[in-house]
Specification:
- This protein has three domains: about 80 residues, Arc Repressor Mutant, subunit A (Orthogonal Bundle); about 110 residues, Periplasmic binding protein-like II (D-Maltodextrin-Binding Protein, domain 2, 3-Layer(aba) Sandwich); about 100 residues, 3-Layer(aba) Sandwich (D-Maltodextrin-Binding Protein, domain 2).
- Helices cover about 40% and strands about 20% of the residues.
- The strands form two sheets. Strands 3, 4, 5, 6, 7, 8, 9, 10 and 11 form a nine-stranded mixed sheet that branches. A two-stranded antiparallel sheet has the order 1-2.
- Helix 1 packs across helix 2, helix 1 crosses helix 4 and helix 2 crosses helix 3.
- The radius of gyration is 24 Å and the shape is elongated.
- InterPro entries: LysR-type_TF_proteobact-type, LysR_HTH_N, LysR_subst-bd, WH-like_DNA-bd_sf, WH_DNA-bd_sf.
- Belongs to the LysR transcriptional regulatory family.
Length: about 325
């Protein structure tokens, strides 16, 4: 497509919003759903933007959907900067009332998102009722570059990227079994006794992080008749009393249905990292949510390490 850009004052700035959604979702249908319009509207707005700029922004692929061209990649950098600048400007000029409203999307691992982030953020909304929150507890990595979330909580620190990143917390995983299982099977007095038992584990080739493959360290070659990509599914399976499982202490808590097995000998410590894009650090709602979660993690350090039986919550004055 021959480049013949029109004057900026004739550009429909609203088309940039459509461009960003297509770039992030790679399909017009997904972008339409997120924007609350139909498929044809998205296609029409993208064509209009391409004509206005005199550039082809996407190439269509059956396998990958809408793929950014070189021109599209260049526009994406500026469009995201414009989006962030506009959000920051709205907060600054609209005063405190606007700064404490808006929307935050948090992506995190399944177990931590369900067992810790969700109950903590529920109280965050008591103080900031005008901030709406999406929590995405999923068993895979969240892609911030595609704006799948504003804040990501992951097992590994991002290796690169323009992110504001900090260690959120350490957490511990222990070996658990039901009292009934322990009564029906050979006693476990030392680590070597584990060789005669069965374990519930992750599906090795589908684990989204090597840090999830605990059994490689605890008991290589362990018998695993039941595997799952979901830690919550593993928790439910352990409750059935047919195998042992290594589970996060924050997920089990003080559940009387499970008993710790060799806690002094079998303990795994991992970390959670929290980060968000550098261009979001000026958005008050983002920093409020991130700071709140960081404070909650500090308050619950013992709980996350399995040294306290129950989760604690911030009092209203502590959340300020």
């Amino acid at each position: 497509m021959q480049k013949n850009p029109i004057p900026v004052d004739r550009l429909n700035w609203d088309d940039i919003k459509f461009f960003l959604e297509v770039a992030r979702t790679h399909t017009a249908s997904s972008a339409a759903k997120r924007l609350g319009v139909d498929y044809t509207t998205v296609s029409r707005r993208i064509r209009a933007l391409e004509q206005a700029l005199g550039a082809l922004l996407f190439e269509k692929s059956r396998s990958a959907g809408f793929v950014l061209t070189v021109d599209g990649q260049q526009l994406l950098r500026y469009a995201e900067a414009m989006e962030s600048a506009l959000q920051a400007a709205c907060e600054e000029v609209s005063g405190t009332g606007f700064a404490l409203s808006g929307h935050v999307r948090i992506g995190c691992t399944e177990g931590f998102g369900s067992g810790f982030v969700t109950p903590q953020i529920s109280r965050f909304q008591d103080r900031y009722p005008d901030i709406t929150v999406d929590i995405l507890p999923v068993p895979h990595f969240i892609n911030l570059s595609r704006r799948e979330a504003d804040i990501a909580i992951t097992l590994e620190r991002p290796e690169r990227g323009p992110y504001v990143c900090s260690k959120l917390c350490d957490y511990r995983l222990l070996l658990y079994a039901t009292p009934d299982y322990l009564a029906r099977h050979p006693p476990i007095r030392q680590r070597e006794d584990l060789a005669g038992h069965r374990f519930i584990t992750y599906v090795d080739d589908l684990a989204f992080s090597p840090k999830l493959l605990y059994m490689d360290d605890v008991l290589p070659g362990a018998k695993s008749p039941l595997r799952s990509t979901s830690v919550i599914a593993q928790y439910q399976a352990a409750l059935q009393g047919r195998a042992l499982a290594i589970l996060p202490c924050f997920l089990v808590g003080d559940d009387p249905r499970l008993t710790r097995v060799l806690p002094e000998q079998v303990a795994v410590t991992r970390q959670f990292w929290m980060y968000y894009s550098e261009d979001l650090r000026k958005l008050k709602r983002i920093t409020l949510a991130a700071d709140y979660l960081r404070t909650c993690a500090q308050l619950n350090q013992d709980f996350l390490l399995g040294e306290a039986p129950r989760m604690s919550y911030l009092e209203p004055e502590e959340a300020a």
